[in-house]
Amino acid sequence: MLVIRKEFDGNCRKFDALPQREREKGYSFWGWSLCWVTTQKISPVSDSHLCCPGKACPGIPEETKILPNILKKIGCTPMVRVNKIGKSYGLKCELLAKCEYFNAGGSVKDRISLRMVEDAERAGIIKPGDTLIEATSGNTGIGLALVAAVKGYRCIIVLPEKMSMEKVDVLKALGVEIVRTPCTRFDAPESNIRVAWKLKDEIPNSHILDQYRNPSNPLAHYDTTAEEILEQCEGKVHMVVIGSGTGGTVTGVARKLKEKCPECKIIGVDPDGSIVALPSELNRTNTTTIEVEGIGHDFIPTVLDRSVSSCAMRRGLCGSSGSAMSVAMRAARDLKEGQRCVVILPDSVRNYMSKFLNDKWMIKNGFLNDVQEHKPWWWNIKVQKLNLSAPLILLPEVSCQKAIEILQEKGYDQAPVVAESGLILGMVTLSNILSSVLAGNAQFSDPVMKVIYDQFSKISLDDSLGRLSCILENDHFAIVVHEQMQFSGNGSSFMKQMVFGVVTAMDLLTFVSRSEKKQKCSLAAQDSVSPAGSVAPPEPETSN
Ligand SMILES: Cc1ncc(COP(=O)(O)O)c(C=O)c1O
User: Which of 37, 201, 346, 366 is deepest in the core (most CB within 10 A)?
Assistant: First the structure.
């Protein structure tokens, strides 16, 4: 038997242009006859390495054979040596990445989705045709959608507004029904967790597998992820760094490693703004929103066993794989040469192309400066140069009816809702009040808190108009905030945000057009007094 071994000779020739002699020498051709082809050597090999239809293929690893369905492509993810990052941070240990984005649905959560469904099927709790509902940050939704599609369940995914467009589009493509909820506290009636339970009460034969409380979540990682790490590292692993969302991955992996490799340190990664870290002093922060998806919470999930991480939780930056990797750069500093640090990468940047790969999003969210190549003259001028009028602020108890009257009287479309303490609770807009009332979700007598819009961008007086323009490309307005350090009687301090104004595209346009008009007038005036050709070019405005 023969197998074609690809052996590119560096040349591309047309099949019909190849000399007859070359074909007779035992060369064959890869590709179509009239396309450009490369010559391929044919060499004799043993039959055991061949994959023939209808025959067993003992030499080929299980996963390269035909799989019965896509769910068989969950687990057994690659462990890859990271050769440059660790060295550039001065790490002496070997740095390895467990690439969970090679799971069929693209994330670590495929494992628990499959396990939760199959455990529930085995227990006779669910059967094909039933409805699966889950509150998720997206990845569990994609995993469940895949399992539901293969096994024949209806699937409803309830996810917060902040989750990336990519995840939402994949969920739609997988045929799930999507319910979006505002990014509120977990116990607010409109949170994704509460909305999921409300749906379950309304839909017959529906089930919430509940990744936050289901023991199958950590068990999936105890039985598979951790076993794979041990096998791939041949039992030699000194540190594993893992992001914590539900805490299933960190709990399952940590429990198995504590048993089989007790010296191994487990580092849980929790972002600023979350309350999951231990010791709890680490949770003190002024950050009120968590930008990274998938990790961090404002409650402690039941499946998270915080006693199993041998180190304090560390802080992450952005993107949960990036968070874990950046934390590993600090946590693994003490590991010696010959020791090993494994970082779990839960998903890939393909989930966040509209965010971390998008310069405009990065500028808008304050992660990047100055990427615009040809900046207009006003790009670096500070927001404080805008002529903003004093803001109109509403207290949360003001009724929707009163809010409409106030906004109409003052000629505003929107106003920030701010608590007595100064905490910015959200924005109320005329259109939001009206659409909520018309949809029957609120009454005119309800407090504005009921129709509050908490997805808004904040900007400071020191930010540039360039950053503001990036925000206004997608948002109708931004709240201009000013931060002050406030001290209490016992000496403790916190950052207090004060609303300085609300800025819209009209404010920016008015500023730009007025400044340009002023400049033209002064040039015309100079023109009339200077001899021809001696006019200086217009001076751009300074940035402060
Ligand atoms: C991107 C991403 N990273 C990390 C995690 C954390 O995984 P776990 O819920 O097992 O803690 C999740 C969970 O949803 C996730 O989506």
Answer: 346
